[in-house]
Amino acid sequence: MKKAKRLDHVQASLTLAITAKAAAMKSEGIDIISFGAGEPDFDTPAPVVEAAKNALDHGLTRYTAVAGMPALRAEIAAWYGREFGVETAPDQVIVGIGGKQVIYNAIMSIIDAGDMVLIPSPYWLSYPAMVHLAGGEVAFIETREEEKFLMTPNMLEEAIVKHAPKLLILNSPSNPTGQCYTESDLRALADVLRRHPDVNILWDNIYAHLTYGGFRHVELAKVAPDLCPRLVTTGGFSKSFAMTGWRLGFAIADPERIRMMTTIQSHSTSNAVSFAQAGALAALKLDRAVLENMRKAFENRRNIILEEISKIDGVSCAAPMGAFYVLLNCKKYCNIERGLHWIQGDVDLAKYILEEGHVATVPGSAFGAPGYLRLSFALDEEGIRKGIQRIADALATLNA
Ligand SMILES: Cc1ncc(COP(=O)(O)O)c(C=O)c1O
Fold first, then answer.
1. Cα(14)–Cα(364) distance, rounded to whole angstroms?
2. Quick check: pTM over 0.90?
């Protein structure tokens, strides 16, 4: 069958085999605990659902403007300004079908065939795939666990000099590490970027409202407004508003960049779903307490999972300051032979934990972090305690 060359570097997700196996085991009636989810387990807040229903009842069922309903673009601009202290105009906003689509459109509007893109590693697995689909090439910047997986200014400077990239992709809070750049981190990175005016920046803040331990998210646009002409900030409703299925994301950028992204979107998907946009308008007007309650629940789960993990022999993780993932260092168990079990890396380990412990995790290799497992804590407290205990028991068997 004919296969386009652009697919050569885009692999089917490493996680698919494990997810499929977990699903098959579940359907056989096996009690699987899943730390695999990349989405909140909460229902979308009721006023958002009501607003979408109302929109349907009132005939909001036609195309909207490609970049989003004017009222929603204006509301996102105002909300972003309030939340992060960055004054934003409606023509600096585009609404798309999930954070994913706006990121894709941003990359498509910046990258030509052969252009280099810098991505700090570990990374969200769709970034390199999107760059390859756009014809670009990726250079990863390897970060270190001892430095909380944060890219340092030196790492950035060296990579820019070596690769002459057209784009840098930054994600804070990060999927999969849960780590966040502080204001002073960002100031230091901005100093480097100022010296290299050809580098565009994509700043993905989709987990910005899910931060813990008193950490307050800071926007790159706030810290370095002078970089804004070459900065695209992307976000969305999936995570902090519990709206994954609504497929709503947005980007904030210079109006010229927004026009380019709108042109691309106009020829692929047109507008985001009309009545979902009505829901998004209501989401931005939600009582703050609604979001805060979800955030608090995640913070509580994060504390529980860290406490439970600390009891397991031979694994460790840097405490996440945001998002809802921990990246568990399991290197000790990634090259081990015990009886029938021969584990040669995190993919084997994840399979073993699924088969022996009936717990689904995501191998770190999927995110450029071999030797690690990603555990999402978007599940209830009991599930977390039970699941971590099962992992501990399965690992203890390997230790025996
Ligand atoms: C870092 C990151 N960015 C963007 C997205 C895209 O989210 P969505 O397309 O649901 O808005 C995700 C989803 O998992 C993510 O983890």
1. 10
2. yes
